[in-house]
Design brief:
With 578 residues, the chain is α+β, with helices and mostly antiparallel strands. The chain contains 17 helices and 7 strands. Among the domains are: 33 residues; 45 residues; 169 residues, Alpha-Beta Plaits (2-Layer Sandwich), CATH 3.30.70. The radius of gyration is 62 Å and the shape is elongated.
Length: 578
């Protein structure tokens, strides 16, 4: 439908009904023209709004009391807890900013007020939503939005449900949460009660915002620089230590460490099972002595250990048979040969063996052959010579058959060396000034292999060290080689050394100097600096010659066998001491 002015019919504005004013017309820009007799939007009537709110609160309070029925009337709470403090009187001319400041001040005053004891049935201190004539729910907040039911606490209110139904009011006399502390009897009966949990501890405290802490500029840059300086310092220390080891400056410290006496333990190993404690001070208390206790290692039972052969008995030489005089030896030989002859004659008489042919010699030729020798002496003589040659050849062949082959001789020698080493391992250490001669290096390695010795030869620009270990007989043979058989002062001239060998890469292992002249070995010596018996072999085989440019490299070569102390001994020893 349309009116006489040509405009479509529209619904009436709610404010037009209250103020009996005509419908507001729109301006050219679309915004409504302010109506007449309406309070300007910038200056609301605060006094009137406060009065309406109080009237609505009184109406709700009366309705709640009527809903409780014949229940006991609760004692009205103090004015400070029953209703919120009224907003301060404000003039119509008060701006919105001043009104907001006044409301914030009132709320702060209520929060800082001392807490009052909670009554058994407190009256609601909120402004419930109401319904006007048109059924529109209104609340205390702006924009005509009602409060959420969860914010209404335990008060009984009416709110608009999703299907237009009203919720039933809750009974104010229901169970309330008791935040008071337990009684003395409850504390005594409950062993798990924590008195630190008081009612105030259960109330959520207001969240306080943490203050922002900013790092100063360059803080982590300084920390990173400090870490880099520390790493550079550690690397410098390692380089200095490595240079000191290469230069031999740490040898004096190693010598001092070798003579340091270790600190005795707090409890010796043989007393650990008898003392209940970490040191001997525990024996002051008789309870710490485990002699008569059930867990003591001392018992009435007898333990018979396994009997071992004394180690010194295997080093005792075997008992040799008694020596016989030449007459006694001849007599025994004569008797043995006579017995063998009688046994052979008995076999011939019984026909077990065939009688041997007569042994014809030039001395018994006429007596054995007789007439044959007279008839044809030339043929008989040739026959006798032939038999003599056959007997000689058979004798030589028997000797060759009894000889051992090359492999058998090697196995026999190895068995003898193993038997010699089973009687005990002996070690010997030699210090040589120069090993530039390749001939001498070959003799050292070859004789060590032939005598079944294990060890190593360390070659250094200043000195050379040879360590060998094996049986007593083999060590004795090697000692004669090193001290007697090799002439260390001889310069054999140029040696045939392969170009790819380690010896050819260093100049101090050459028999010629820089000018090509033979070097002088007149002062070259070889000395035995240590010899003795060891518990077992420290080397698995003969490792040959090792070229070591520095002291640290020489010690590393000997550290696997824990023989680096011999290098310190060789450096500290002087030729005059041998």
């Amino acid at each position: 439908m349309a009116d006489t002015s040509g405009n479509a019919l529209k619904r009436s504005h709610p404010e037009d009904q209250d103020h009996n004013s005509q419908k507001r017309t729109r301006s050219n820009n679309g915004s409504p023209v302010p109506g007449q007799g309406v309070t300007p939007p910038g200056k609301p009537d605060i006094a009137k709004m406060v009065a309406e709110a109080r009237a609505k609160a009184d109406a709700v309070r009366a309705r709640l009391q009527a809903a409780r029925g014949g229940g006991a009337t609760a004692t009205p709470p103090p004015a400070q807890a029953a209703a919120p403090a009224p907003a301060p009187a404000s003039s119509p001319a008060m701006s919105k900013l001043e009104q907001m400041k006044a409301r914030v001040a009132a709320a702060t005053q209520r929060a800082s007020a001392p807490s009052q004891p909670r009554p058994s049935a407190p009256a609601p201190s909120y402004q419930p939503p109401t319904r006007d004539d048109e059924g529109i729910s209104k609340a205390r907040g702006g924009l005509d939005v009602g409060l959420h039911p969860a914010l209404l606490s335990d008060a009984t209110t009416e709110f608009r449900s999703g299907k237009g139904k009203q919720a039933k009011p809750k009974r104010a006399g229901g169970p309330q949460l008791d935040l008071s502390g337990p009684s003395v009897e409850e504390i005594k009966n409950n062993p798990y009660f924590d008195p630190s949990l008081n009612p105030k501890a259960t109330v959520a405290k207001p969240r306080q915002s943490r203050q922002l802490l900013f790092n100063e500029k360059g803080k982590y840059i300084h920390q990173a620089a400090a870490l880099r300086r520390q790493a550079q310092l550690e690397a410098m220390k390692k380089r200095i230590a490595e240079k000191a080891r290469q230069a031999g400056l740490d040898e004096e410290m190693d010598v001092e460490k070798a003579f340091l006496v270790p600190v005795p333990p707090a409890v010796e190993w043989w007393d650990e099972g008898l003392v209940n404690g970490s040191d001997y001070s525990a024996i002051d208390d008789p309870k710490n002595i485990k002699i008569d206790t059930p867990d003591s290692i001392i018992t009435p039972y007898i333990q018979h250990p396994i009997q071992l052969e004394p180690p010194q008995e295997k080093h005792m030489p075997a008992q040799k048979p008694m020596y016989l005089t030449p007459k006694e030896q001849a007599k025994i030989r004569r008797q043995r040969r006579a017995a063998d002859l009688k046994e052979e004659q008995a076999k011939i008489r019984l026909g077990l063996v065939e009688a041997p042919a007569p042994k014809v010699k030039k001395s018994n030729l006429m007596r054995v052959l007789g007439e044959q020798a007279v008839k044809d002496p030339t043929a008989v003589e040739a026959r006798v010579n032939r038999e003599i040659a056959d007997r000689k050849e058979a004798h030589e062949q028997a000797n060759e058959d009894r000889k051992l082959t090359k492999e058998e001789r090697r196995e026999k020698l190895l068995a003898q060396q193993e038997k010699d080493a089973a009687l005990g391992i002996f070690q010997s250490v030699y210090r040589i000034d120069s090993l530039a001669s390749g001939r001498n290096r070959f003799k050292i390695g070859k004789n060590a292999e032939q005598n079944n010795l294990t060890g190593i030869c360390v070659m250094h620009p200043k000195l050379n060290l040879v360590i060998v270990e094996g049986g007593k007989h083999s060590i004795h043979n090697y000692r004669k080689l090193m001290l007697n058989r090799i002439d260390w002062t001889e310069n054999p001239g140029s040696d045939r050394v392969s170009a790819d060998s380690p010896e050819a890469q260093v100049s101090w292992l050459s028999t010629e100097n820089e000018k090509g002249e033979p070097r002088d070995f007149s002062q070259n010596t070889c000395n035995l600096i240590w010899e003795g018996q060891a518990k077992g072999r420290a080397f698995k085989r003969w490792f040959g010659a090792r070229v070591c440019e520095t002291d640290s490299a020489a010690k590393d070569a000997l550290s696997r066998a824990k023989m680096e102390s011999f290098w310190t001994l060789a450096k500290s020893a002087k030729p005059a001491e041998f």
